[in-house]
UniProtKB/TrEMBL annotation:
The lineage of its organism: Eukaryota, Fungi, Dikarya, Ascomycota, Pezizomycotina. Residues 31-112 form the Heterokaryon incompatibility domain. InterPro entries: HET (IPR010730), HetReg/Transcr_Mod (IPR052895). This is HET-domain-containing protein. It comes from the Eukaryota. It comes from Zopfia rhizophila CBS 207.26.
Length: 112
């Protein structure tokens, strides 16, 4: 699966920057899963990943701003970012793994 290494920020209004990396669930990686509502199907916010900008929902952006650390990266899993939403095969496969993804997570963070 992919996990999101969310960069820290001292200001809650700072832009959202992160890196994605692959991990194997069998290796028991350390990450926290975010459970959140997608809200409306509009993507007004941007998550900066490398040189790209990934559109994300306002609700996910608020969750990431709330949960990010002030001084160090925080490793998270959020379905709309960590699963390639343009790849139906990947979505189907990883949706089937979601119980394990949440079970293996160190914490499950809830944002409503």
């Amino acid at each position: 699966i992919r996990v999101l290494d969310l960069e820290p920020a001292s200001s809650p209004n700072a832009g959202l920057c992160a890196a994605l990396r692959l991990v194997r669930l069998a290796d028991q990686p350390t990450y926290e899963a975010i459970s959140y509502t997608w809200g409306q199907s509009v993507f007004p916010e941007r998550l900066h990943i490398g040189g790209s900008h990934l559109p994300i929902t306002e609700n996910l952006a608020e969750a990431l701003r709330h949960f990010r650390a002030r001084s160090e990266n925080r490793t998270l899993w959020a379905d709309s970012v960590c699963i390639n939403q343009q790849d139906n095969n990947e979505k189907s496969h990883q949706v089937g793994m979601m119980a394990d993804i949440y079970k293996i997570a160190r914490n499950v963070l809830v944002w409503l």
